[in-house]
Predict the 3D structure of the following.
Amino acid sequence: MTIAENLAAVESRISAACARAGRKRSDVTLVAVSKTFGADRVDEAIAAGVTHIGENRVQEARDKKPQVRRNARWHLIGHLQSNKAKDAVRIFDVIETVDSVELAQKIARASDPAASRAPRSGRTPAFVDGDERGFRDRDRGRLDDGAHRAGDFRRPRLRWGFCRYFSTLF
């Protein structure tokens, strides 16, 4: 199957799931994961109608994104090491894997247009990995008690939630 055919099948499944759940299709964002695929395949997916691209590594997106000729919103979907927060803010439109208050604060500082060396100005939307009780600790399977501190910073905009990927497009 081509990427366009896979996309049509995935869109059909998403629409059916939305109908069953009583949700609007526009409430759901499909993020096509480009992991290990080259820029030419990403361009093909965008040409087929994909508007959001997910990458799980900062380094891979750093190398791939400049080679992609078409426009899309780029999501970081993999674990973000705190020493790569500045690069992530510069490269990605959305960071979906914030798993600690400290990481969120580093992203906030890197996103701050008032900071003299901010790689880009404005807000970087970030999704917190956890729930209303706190951040999920990937290594120990527990939640950090830092959720109550989430309001301590203004950037990035934090959104509690999770993402679900339905199928492979590539």
